[in-house]
Amino acid sequence: MDRPPGTPIALLFACMLRITVTRRPHGPTLVLEGRLCGDWVDEVSACWRGLLATHAARSIRVDLDGVTFINAAGRALIRSMRAHGASLAATDVMRRTIGAFVPRAARKPAKRSLDG
Questions:
Q1: 56-66 pLDDT tens trace
Q2: What is the CATH number of the domain that holds 34?
Q3: Using CA atoms, how far apart are residues 87 and 61, in angstroms rounded to an integer?
Q4: Which of 31, 81, 76, 32 is nearest to 52 (CA)?
Q5: Of 16, 49, 67, 103, which is most buried with the most CB atoms under 10 A?
Q6: Residue 52 belongs to some domain of the structure
Q7: Residue 92 is part of which domain span?
């Protein structure tokens, strides 16, 4: 493994994220698991743009059940997804966390959405 001298191995894995796109009858689901930060924000943004090229934003579900951390850039991306009409799904703990940074005006009621 190539790494700069003196870089602790833990730092190399400090921001890891699994991105999976699954298909549902009503549209795709973008499943995120891990830490949404660093270069991963750009990667998720690229996936999002790719989905928007072939699907209506309202049909896209973003599953945040497996997310353990979101930095400021990640929060901005999720706000943008939500503002475009994506449906956000999360566990109760993440729902409360996300609810703190997704403006109420951007939220819309949906089953298992952030709005409860």
A1: 999 999 999 89
A2: 3.30.750.24
A3: 5
A4: 81
A5: 67
A6: yes
A7: 18-104
Counted domains in the chain: 1
pLDDT, tens digit (0-9, with 9 covering 90-100), for 101-113: 565 554 444 445 5
61 neighbors 27 (Cβ within 8 angstroms): yes
In a domain, 94, yes or no: yes
User: Which tokens go with 96?
Assistant: 């409360």
Cβ partners under 8 Å of residue 26, min gap 6:
59
Q: Which alpha helices (H) appear in the chain, and where do they start and end? A: 9-12, 39-54, 72-83, 92-99
pLDDT digits (tens, 9 = 90+) for 29-55: 999 999 999 999 999 999 999 999 999
Residue at 36 is within a domain:
yes
| 113 within some domain | no
